[in-house]
Amino acid sequence: MPLFYKINTYGCQMNVHESEKLAGLLEKMGYVQCPEGEPADVIVFNTCCIRDTAERRALGNIGVTKAEKKRNPDLIIAVVGCMPQQDGVAETIIAKYPYVDIVLGTRSISELPAEINRVLVSRERKRKKSDKRYRAVNVGMPEKYLEIDEATPTVRTSYPNAWINIIYGCNNFCSYCIVPYVRGRELSRNMNDILDEIKRSVDAGYKEITLLGQNVNSYGNDLSDGTNFAKLLHETDKIEGKFRVRFMTSHPKDLTEEVMDEMAASSKICSNLHLPIQSGSDKVLRDMNRRYDREKYLSLIEGLRKRMPDIGITTDIMVGFPTETEKDFEDTIDIVERVRFSNAFTFIYSPRKGTPAARMEQIPYAIKQERISRLIKAQNRVTKELSDEYTGGIYEVLCEDIAPKFDGMACGRTDSGRLVTFDGGRDDIGKFFNVKITASKSASLFGHKEEK
Ligand code: 5AD
Ligand code: SF4
């Protein structure tokens, strides 16, 4: 009987991808992915701490494993990633969750196999009464990042999309954000390593490459070889094969004309951009330390649409930042109506310990809730209007999956990133189709395949 592993992932795409690498490490050790309903031998929680909700969800689920460990004392429980990297949190986990064996921060997750082996050896010795229990804690912040990138096979879980990291960490210190504290300073991967990984993924049949980084536009700043994000896009576009390229996340202060030109000139890079605005108020943007204003953001949008009239632009918006007044919030609604994002991820500001904004006077939760519901309403209106514009058109769609809610239907995305549900099945996953859009419902488009 093989030994089973289970990985529970919270948070962003970066975490989803790092869990694919953790799976690679565990499979190299001989563990097999745990079938649904079976008990696991190793459970890994790959955590997030961007908002309070993400932390509470992970802690709740870690708590549930107490009973599992009672049933199976040989079970190994590991808590890794962003949450334990925060000041004092690793110690709290060790103290409050005695059944957790391993705690690893963002820069030591590649130590998981070595730590599992140490735990197993110490359990054996303890059985022979010659040792005390070993529990691993490593939340150091070395200058290096995961050395597993080039050496470990990734167990990809998002076919036909392959996630590929290009830069780790963040130097921006937006005043609300915990990421620079838990992921450290920016570290770019070597460009040839990235291009090799893209080529390997395309050769293996992946049809969409998503380049990942907290701020992809900073790619290369820390390398002294003159590479930058625009050059990486240029080289990526030259790789042979039929595939698409997307990337996230872009910081508006670092999005250059050169990058926009590369996007427009390339045949593989999608006309799709995730460009978090966070707020439409100049004062709040200043207090957030975002280093751009409304005017700059709007001029970027203009530059993008001039080059790529059909571009789909998505964003992140936060409401309830400490200094946000009703007037500031109205500026956010105003910019949502001006820019016309195809979609917006909306968040209620959540104070994060150790960040400057958490030390400011906070605004009542009821106000935040009221603002987010107004924001969602405004964005939904825009999304619906934009969806209607697709009706009647024919778009190339990469089939990504079977449609979760509709029998006999598949789903995929247009080049601009819009989700389309159309007639299709499992065999269509990973193939491109021309789809005629016949109907739309809020953010979703519906259509059918056109004969080529
Ligand atoms: N509270 C709420 N949302 C946050 N984000 C980052 N930090 C916080 C916070 N403290 C949001 C931002 C970012 C997205 C990934 O999460 O909008 O772009
Ligand atoms: Fe956080 Fe700002 Fe860095 Fe994004 S750019 S990860 S919001 S500090």
Written overview of the protein:
This protein is 37% helix and 22% strand. The longest helix is centred in the last third of the chain and has 26 residues, at 365-390. The chain is built from 14 helices and 19 strands. The chain has a six-stranded parallel beta sheet, with helices on both faces. It folds into four domains: 4-144, Methylthiotransferase, N-terminal domain (Rossmann fold, 3-Layer(aba) Sandwich); 158-270, Transcription Regulator spoIIAA; 279-288 and 300-389, Transcription Regulator spoIIAA; 394-450, OB fold (Dihydrolipoamide Acetyltransferase, E2P), CATH 2.40.50. The protein is an alpha/beta fold and 452 residues long. Bound molecules: 5'-deoxyadenosine and iron/sulfur cluster (SF4). Residues 170, 172-174, 177, 179-180, 214-215, 251 line the site of iron/sulfur cluster.
What does the radius of gyration come to?
Answer: 23 Å
Examine the secondary-structure arrangement and name the CATH architecture of the largest domain. 3-Layer(aba) Sandwich
**Top CATH class of the largest domain:** Alpha Beta
What is the number of strand segments?
19
The structural class is alpha/beta
CATH homolog superfamily of the largest domain: Methylthiotransferase, N-terminal domain
| Main sheet overview | 6 strands, parallel
